[in-house]
Amino acid sequence: MTDKLTRKPFILRNPSILVVLAVLSVFTLAVTLLSQAYGSGVIPTSTVKVLGKTLCLALAAVAMDLVWGYLGILSLGQMAFFALGGYLIGQWLMYARTEAIVAASLAGNPIPPTPAELQEGVANQIFGVVGSADLPLVWAFAHSLPIQLALVLAVPGLLALAFGWLAFRSRVNGVYLSILTQAMTLALALWLFQNDNGFRGNNGLSGLQNIPGLDEVDQATLSVWFLWASALALGLAYVLAAWVVSGKFGSVVRAIRDDETRVRFLGYPVEGFKLVVFTLAAIITAIAGALYYPQAGIINPAELMPIASIYLAVWVAIGGRGRLYGAIVGAVVVSLLSSWFTGGRAPSIHLPGYTVNWVDWWQVALGLSFVLVTLFAPKGIAGIVDRLGGILSPRRHGRDLGPDQGALQEQEARA
Amino acid sequence: MSALLEVDGISVSFDGFRAINNLSFSIGDAELRAVIGPNGAGKTTFMDIVTGKTRPDSGDVKWGTPPKSLLRLNEARIAREGVGRKFQRPTVFEDQSVADNLTMALKADRSPFAVLGWRPSRASATRVADLASEVGLADHLPRKAGELSHGQKQWLEIGMLLAQEPRLLLVDEPAAGMTLAEREQTTALLVRLARTRAVIVVEHDMDFVRRLNCKVTVLHQGSVLAEGSLDHVTRNPDVIDVYLGR
């Protein structure tokens, strides 16, 4: 009798995990074998970096899908966590590298520099650009990689926890919550734009592609290492996210998305569930950011303007909400297409009397496709996979036909 | 008989309109009670207050022995105390299977991390299967709840309520949208449930109330107009005036 309910192993219940891990492994191996550092050199280092960064964006998209596709919160502040992760790892990268440079330049002095002199030199180098020579308090741990790595997890996690606690407790929902998340990321961006807060204002942090202690390793090799790290993080996060949304926890989370009030009457502390998912997603996003910015080389406050988070939402919508692989597909396809179209290499379309220049028109095309997907294919690209797999949800519109007509509803009955 | 739920002189107004006016009500551990009243009598607001959805302006709601106030608890805490609510429109999670709906409702630790670590066991699977056959959905476990008929959804929701193992059941118009046979089944189920727990049925339909054969509370303009057996209240001139006479 209970045979129908006995469960297959976790992996078999989620075949997308195997597919994603396989594709990710093949992709990573292929790029490695075609890279300049480890293979034939067909793929230039700059492209390896673009691909590595794309994996980080896909990681952020998986987290966005947890928050939006499964929990139902359209968060327009996810990239705040992404950038925070970047800033926090950037602090160590910049400090440690500047320290090595300052130490080398002071090494010629007859008297070896004291730690205080060394720190003063570092502060001068880093903050001269914003007219300061003191090391701000927020850089207190910048000398230590383990502490900054811990902060990459802790700071965005605590920010999400505090923000979520305040917002969810007052039962802010729907579009109001989206606006609130957007306000949070905008406030953080505006704060970072200031020169006197210790994050170098609109200059941001730079030179992040140089990893302290790995001076003899060239960028070609580093880019492949970061690609591996990004692929590993994406693979692990995918398995973790798939595990979280499977089983009863996932059931409750999707139920909260569909009818929060009903879940409360079942006795589940809805706010607690939202906090767990929102915080987990913030931490995953921060890890993505911490892997992204060493590949990008530079971070500044413009990175966390709300538009970045809106792009993330667009990727997830186009890829397919509520399907974790959809988020990856959307992020990879749309962000790569974006950089191709806006990179000036896409051929312009010559119409009589007007030339469509993709650098200008890509935004329009993307916006239009977002609207079209939302209207006509709410499941995005992942909807195609569903259709191939025969998973079709019935069209359930209109009133039901009453108790005698069984499950049919007006629209179905007519179809 | 000690009371399981005691509502003591509650009042609530919405924008100056007194939805509930000094209402007192009590129900014992194993009792079936029908609450009737014309539209706007405050039946739904009364249930909202007991389940924590609405806070009264004054008065108290006491629960269990020793009595403790439900007013400081939120909806989820009240549900965990053992108050189950069945809505008028069937509200099940349409995007999930019947089995998932029932599993979610099973009595278990509700905290997020406990739920994250929860794994189905033979016992839980058996319980889900038993519940499903009790409400006539044994053959529909893997189906999405959204595919069920209106009546089946009502039954699924009742199954979910049973899975919660509440001590008090609040049922809002259970007969709505059910066929005659289903109504009889529902009556029998409610009467049987009331042997082991308190059941409050809010109903419009007099025939259905008559079949329940229980004590009746008549609400009018937010307070109790009459209480007693159905025959007793239907002879009450006030009741005839405001409700039955029309």
TrEMBL record, chain A:
Subcellular location: Cell membrane
Residue segments, region Disordered: 396-415
GO cellular component: plasma membrane
Keywords associated with the record: Cell membrane, Membrane, Transmembrane, Transmembrane helix
Keyword Repeat among record annotations: no
Coiled-coil region: none
Gene Ontology molecular function: any one: branched-chain amino acid transmembrane transporter activity
Membrane topology: Multi-pass membrane protein
Primary location class: membrane
Keyword Membrane: yes
Domain of life of the source: Bacteria
TM annotation in the entry: 67-89, 147-168, 175-193, 225-245, 266-292, 298-317, 324-341, 361-385
Protein name: Amino acid/amide ABC transporter membrane protein 2, HAAT family
Native species: Paracoccus sediminis
Source organism phylogeny: Bacteria, Pseudomonadati, Pseudomonadota, Alphaproteobacteria, Rhodobacterales
Gene: urtC
UniProtKB/TrEMBL annotation, chain B:
Superkingdom per UniProt: Bacteria
Residues annotated as domain ABC transporter: 5-246
A single MF term (Gene Ontology): ATP hydrolysis activity
Gene Ontology cellular-component terms listed: plasma membrane
One Pfam family this sequence matches: BCA_ABC_TP_C
Keywords annotated in UniProt: ATP-binding, Nucleotide-binding, Transport
Entries under PROSITE patterns matching the protein: ABC_TRANSPORTER_2
Record-linked PANTHER family: CONSERVED COMPONENT OF ABC TRANSPORTER FOR NATURAL AMINO ACIDS-RELATED, HIGH-AFFINITY BRANCHED-CHAIN AMINO ACID TRANSPORT ATP-BINDING PROTEIN
Name the record gives this protein: Urea ABC transporter ATP-binding protein UrtD
Organism: Paracoccus sediminis
